[in-house]
């Protein structure tokens, strides 16, 4: 789900939790807005996404590099990649 969130943020430039939970991409996965919120928080903690305030998120340069295969999440200091990229 984390990669789907990053791809969504890359395509949307910025998005909020409600928009993501209503997007068909996430509807297909049958995930709740709570699950999206938790994953966005982990992505922000890892520096792959950034909270821009009141539930809005944006992809960071590191997040873009991860999607392009230029960043190895295993080498990020925290949190553990398995916690973020599940």
The Rg value, from CA coordinates, equals: 12 Å
End-to-end CA span: 6 Å
Low-confidence stretches: none
What percent of residues are in strands?
5-15%
How are strands sequenced across the largest beta sheet?
1-3-2
- Helix/strand class: alpha+beta
The best one-word shape is globular
Major sheet: 3 strands, antiparallel
Number of strands: 3
Count of helical regions: 6
Mean pLDDT: 83
Helix content: 40-55%
Molecular structure report:
The protein has a three-stranded antiparallel sheet. Strand 2 and strand 3 form a beta hairpin. Helix content is 55%, strand content 14%. The mean pLDDT is 83. The chain is of the alpha+beta class and 86 residues long. It is built from six helices and three strands; from the N terminus they run H-E-H-H-H-E-E-H-H. The protein has helices spanning 2-12, 17-22, 24-29, 33-45, 61-67, 81-84, and strands at 14-16, 49-53, 56-59.
Q: What's the quick description here?
A:
With 86 residues, the protein is of the alpha+beta class. The chain contains 6 helices and 3 strands. It has helices at 2-12, 17-22, 24-29, 33-45, 61-67, 81-84, and strands at residues 14-16, 49-53, 56-59.
Compile the SSE list and pairings:
Elements: H1 2-12, E1 14-16, H2 17-22, H3 24-29, H4 33-45, E2 49-53, E3 56-59, H5 61-67, H6 81-84
Antiparallel strand pairs: 1-3, 2-3
List keywords for this structure.
three-stranded antiparallel β-sheet
């Amino acid at each position: 789900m984390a990669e789907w969130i990053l791809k969504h943020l890359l395509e949307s430039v910025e998005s909020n939790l409600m928009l993501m939970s209503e997007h068909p991409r996430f509807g297909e996965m049958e995930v709740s807005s709570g699950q999206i919120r938790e994953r966005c928080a982990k992505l922000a903690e890892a520096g792959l996404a950034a909270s821009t305030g009141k539930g809005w998120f944006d992809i960071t340069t590191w997040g873009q590099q991860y999607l392009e295969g230029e960043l190895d999440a295993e080498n990020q200091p925290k949190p553990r990649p398995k916690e973020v990229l599940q």
